Amino acid sequence: MNERTPVSTIMTREVVTLKNTDTLENAEQQFKAKKIRHIPIVKGSQVIGILSYTDLLRISFADAFSEDTHEVDTSVYTLFTIEQVMARNLVSVGPGTTIKDVAEIFAAREFHALPVIDEGTLVGIVTTTDLIKYLLEQY
Description:
- This is CBS domain-containing protein.
- It holds the Pfam family CBS.
- Helices cover 30% and strands 20% of the residues.
- It is an alpha+beta fold.
């Protein structure tokens, strides 16, 4: 295992994003349609936060329904905005950040996803799942 392997080798490059003005209902639809758990939130071209599916579960009853059903009561989503629910203490990494450094961030913090930003532009996202898949490939 090369300790200098950059995160750009394992990150997801086609990142689903939402605007800070999008609705939480739209966010839930994206989570389910794309089968993802984290979405960077942008205001213009700047990443201002990250929304996780767990963030939605904390404010809704969505976890009481199976992923196959589309009859989730989303009325609670009108009570909050994305900016109120998203994580704001944004930590990001660059594409040249080593996988080892990313693993250390995940281990030290309670993050499961990090936006990958190059010169102010979102170029990817790396998750704990990406890291686990990489480690499994090493064996």
